[in-house]
Amino acid sequence: MPLFLLLVAVPIVEIALFIEVGGWLGLWPTIAIVILTAAIGTVLLRAQGLATLGELQRRLGAGEDPSSTLAHGAMILVAGVLLLTPGFFTDAVGFALLTPPVRAAAIRLAIRFARSRMTQVHMGIRTGAGGRRGPAPPGTVDGEYQVVDPEDGGPEDGAPPGGSGWTRVPGERRES
C-alpha cells in the first residue's frame, strides 16, 4: 500500500509544481529548467558514478568490505533515475541523493527499515522485529548431523557404524 501511495502522490506533486512554476515563469523557461537539471544531473551522475566505481575497485583489490561502496553506488543510481525523470520534486530528491551525507542517511534509514522487516532464526529460537524471542514455530524440525571425513571414508569422532542413514560414505553400498 505505501508503494501505491508513492506512485500516486509523486506524479500529483510533480503536476502541481509544473503548474505553479509554469504559471510563474512561463512554458519555455519551465521546459528549459527541466532540460538543464537533467543535463547537470547527468554530468554529476557520471562523475560520482566513476568515482564510486574506482573506490569499489580499490576496496576489492585491497580485500576490504565493499558493501558501503555498493550501497552508495545504488543510491547514486537511484539519484540518476530521479534526475532523468522530468519534474522538480524528483530533481530535488535526486540532487539531494548526490550529496554523501544525504546518501549515508538514506542508507541508514533503508537498513533500519530492512531490519524491522526481517525475521532471524538462531538455534531453533525465533527472533522477530524488536528482539522478541519465543519458541520455534510449529513445523520446526530439530535434527542432528555428523561430519563425514571423506579421506578415511567414514564418520569422524567414533560415530556409531551405519549412522542415521542420512549420509553415505563414499564407496559404500546400500541395501534396499
Task: Provide a descriptive summary of the structure in words.
- The chain is mainly alpha-helical.
- It has a domain at 2-120.
- Helices cover 60% and strands 7% of the residues.
- The strands form 2 sheets. A 3-stranded antiparallel beta sheet has the order 1-2-3, with no helix packed on it. Strands 4-5 form a two-stranded antiparallel ribbon.
- Helix 2 (27-62) runs parallel beside helix 4, helix 3 (67-84) packs antiparallel against helix 4 (88-97) and helix 3 crosses helix 5 (100-117).
- The longest helix has 36 residues, at 27-62.
- The radius of gyration is 28 Å and the shape is elongated.
Labels describing this entry:
single chain; 176 residues; mainly alpha; three-stranded antiparallel beta sheet; two-stranded antiparallel sheet; elongated
Query: What is the number of helical segments per DSSP (H or I, 4+ residues)?
Result: 5
Distance between the termini: 54 Å
What's the assembly state of these chains?
A: single chain
- Please estimate the helix content: 55-70%
Write down the overall mean pLDDT. 79
The spatial strand order of the largest sheet comes to 1-2-3
Give the class from helix and strand content and strand pairing: mainly alpha
- Quick one: how many beta strands? 5
Strand composition percent: 5-15%
What Rg is obtained from the alpha carbons, in whole angstroms?
28 Å
Quick overview:
This protein is mostly helical and 176 residues long. The protein has a domain at 2-120.
